[in-house]
Amino acid sequence: MDGLISRKDLGKFIYCSSLLEESVANAYRRIAELVDDKLVKGLLGFISRDSFKHAECLRVVGEQLSGSMEICPEECEEVWGKTWKVLMTDAERYLDKSEISHEELASLIKGLMKLESFVAEEYLTMMHVKLIESMAGEAKIDLKSFRTLLEWIIEDEKRHEEILRMIENALAKKEK
Fold this sequence. Notes:
By secondary structure, the chain is mainly alpha-helical. The protein has one domain: Ferritin (Up-down Bundle), CATH 1.20.1260.10. 80% of the residues lie in helices and 0% in strands. The chain contains 7 helices and no strands. The chain has helices at 7-34, 38-66, 73-80, 83-92, 102-118, 122-138, 144-175. It is elongated, with a radius of gyration of 17 Å.
């Protein structure tokens, strides 16, 4: 995205973020389905539901800005760059799991923590939202009505990181 950003370009960027959030939400849901530990299952389900809410919110904002135009996933790689494909591949590899051992779960949690921080989640989300606001300002697009929703997503992402740390600590205690 070079030069002045149009309203439609900003809408595409945000809409593509919704597709990424949805992919992450599906990964959490799938892992939660495979886990026997009720606490871990519940915490992963909590993150999954939050991520589905984020996807819906970002989708609506993206559609509002872009004029409800259809955006295919291939366009998202153009909008986000090569990072898009890496992030989607990381999220989607969790969907192929059919079972998870305790050891593998500990490894997956570490991977999810990495994904959370890398995927427009956690502190990258904060930068992402700041970028969106900057892009909007450059294009003279008023995002006041969307800013609160975006701030709530940031707060949720901070909680997701804390929840993953809780899971990691609980798994470490079980190993001892």
